[in-house]
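fyi for ur records
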Amino acid sequence: MSTGPNPTVKLRGGRPWTPGDSGDGTSADVLVRDGLVAAVGPEATEATADIKLDCGDRVVSPGLVDLHTHRRQPGKEEAETIESGGRAAALGGFTAVLAMPNTTPTIDSAEVVREVLELGRSAPCAVHTSGAITVDRAGERLAPMAEMAALGVSLFTDDGSGVQDDALIRRALEYAGGLGVILAPHCGVTSLSQGTCMHEGLVSSRLGLSGQPAEAEELMVMRDIALSRLTGTPVHFLHLSTARSVDLVRQAKAAGQAITAEAAPHHFTLTDEVCVGYDPLFKVHPPLRTPADVAAVKAGLADGTIDAIATDHAPHTPDSKELPFDQAPPGMLGLEYALALALTRLVDGQSAAPDPDEPERGGIPGAAGPYGGTRPHAAAAGCNT
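which gave:
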């Protein structure tokens, strides 16, 4: 038997899952030959294989793709590298990830694109990269999108910042339409969001923390839907977090616009109530919202208004996340937990608003700290030889 580049692999004792699956958790063996699934069930059990992996009742699914990850390389390798992030992705069942451009330097030129793609060649999963809409994500001048598109970049975003200049984002959309690429705005009006550290509401008032109103996101979603309609260029909305944002996208799709959207696991599993302990682990951007917003995001995922779950995986050094809540950088981990959280919260239907005082912080039963602690027991990867 061969153990070369394409050995035959048998995955034993896992729980195969595919889109539309009933989710009954039935165990079955899976045979992979020449990189493709060759058999599932008794036929796979009886077949011979070069490599046998004991999946121990873990979920076995098609390779996942994450549209939204922060690699931190180049520039902030102390937080995470492309290689270490690739290992986290593989542990979570992801076989391909898309890197966001807010690195140091910004991924706003062909030179930096080449660097990231080269670094990604040795990662445990396929690494693709987005490009910045504007130079250094400063929102002042368009980046050379054509040069980056020529290298295979097909999604452009200033993620972490919204492009505030209406005329500039209109021009970017027209340019993107000619190139056949997608713009993915981070929706946040700076005048309403700058200097804030959580959602504006009863909880922020009680905690004495500066809050960002839902309208900071919604106004830009509304603007970019209008500009997409004006230019005829598709738009993909990153990490929707409010009920009104979801409804605006739903209406635009119903009107026939070429709009897609994503949501992050923390926006359909956690509410702003988890911030009551001032734990910077729960500081994210856009911020955690209200139970009504969480319910709306879940409904949007269920009815297809929101097209994808994307982790917004955003690692930071431990010392930076130990700063006071209002000083710590926003962002939490997601690659290793996204599948398990989706199955737990969306498929199994457990409560969307966990008790922040529970040891596992409302994540996966039996797994401590799902947003930055130990790994979940229900990940799609990690089978034993």
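The first strand starts at residue 9 and ends at 16. thats all i got for now
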